[in-house]
Amino acid sequence: MLRSMTGFGRGVVESNGVSVTAEIKTLNSKGVDIFCRLPRSLSSKEIELRNLLSAELERGKIEINLTLVKTAQAEASVSVNRPLVKAYFQDIRESFFHLSNSFDDLEIFKMAMSWPNALNTETVPETSDAEWQTALQAIRTALAECQDFREREGGVLVDIFGECINRIENGLKQVAEQDVLRIPAVRERLLKSITDLLGEEGFDKNRFEQELVYYVEKYDISEEKVRLQTHLDYFREVLTEGNGKKLGFLAQEIGREINTIGSKANDAVIQRLVVGMKDELEKIKEQTSNVL
């Protein structure tokens, strides 16, 4: 099945005292480019998360945004250093007492709390295994939604590719029809030019036919027409496989045959058909870079 590299998925799971929201966005890229936005408590899980995303999404520019909110009662990560604040308070109060009998205990307390090390800052605890499992559930939900998005986008690309290939094939059929008329027209044109220049008896007709055969061989496009049709048929087969790299390679081969037909045909009608086929091929190339 053909899948696009463009996708988006979101998963929200609440369990084990936490609520986890995972959002995954993917765009096209030649390789795997992963950018993680994680809470500090999950930073130790980043390598495991990268391996999971790389295995599931395979290729593309991948961005994940993970948020974790505690739903159960949690201990404060900042606490008051009471012994030190008490010492500050007494020292400030005694200093005021020697200067003035009028002082406000609340103001002294505010001053004591603003002094160095009045607060103890605890390190953020690592997420427990149960909380990480909750996060994994949210991530897998987001991954499944992202994969569904990619498959839907891939279905749209299949339709686009199919239409472009059909139009190239139709152009090839018109080239084949014109090719039948091309050589007789060339013969008449060359014969008229020589006759006008030398007269009807002024040249060797047998030599003229020999040179015409050489001309026909030089500008023959039969092989190119067969190879182009083969590439178009194979392109349709690869569409069912969903291999973006193969499609990109085939697009190059299709372009090579179209260019050769245009350079060898030496015919205005075929040149116009070639331009139309190139236009359709460019639409294919624009989209193959977004196929997984």
Keywords:
292 residues; alpha+beta; four-stranded mixed β-sheet; two-stranded antiparallel sheet; 64% helix
What is the secondary structure topology, with strand pairs?
Layout: E1 7-15, E2 18-27, E3 32-37, H1 46-57, E4 60-70, E5 78-80, H2 82-99, H3 105-114, E6 119-121, H4 129-198, H5 205-218, H6 222-241, H7 244-265, H8 268-288
Parallel strand pairs: 3-4
Antiparallel strand pairs: 1-2, 2-4, 5-6
Helix pairs in contact: 2-3, 4-6, 4-8, 6-7, 7-8
Quick rundown:
The protein is of the alpha+beta class and 292 residues long. It contains 8 helices and 6 strands. The longest helix has 70 residues, at 129-198.
Structure description:
The relative contact order is 0.14. The chain is of the alpha+beta class and 292 residues long. It contains eight helices and six strands, in the order βββαββααβααααα.
* Largest beta sheet: strand ordering: 1-2-4-3
Structural class determined from secondary elements: alpha+beta
Which value, in Å, is the CA radius of gyration? Answer: 38 Å
Count of helical stretches: 8
How would a crystallographer describe the biggest sheet?
4 strands, mixed
Give the overall form.
rod-shaped
Q: Which regions contain 5 or more consecutive residues with pLDDT less than 50? A: none
Cα(first) to Cα(last) distance is 10 Å
Oligomer: single chain
- Topology order in helix (H) and strand (E) letters: EEEHEEHHEHHHHH
Measured as a percent range, the helix fraction is 55-70%
Mean pLDDT: 85
Beta-strand percent range? 5-15%
- Give me the count of strands: 6
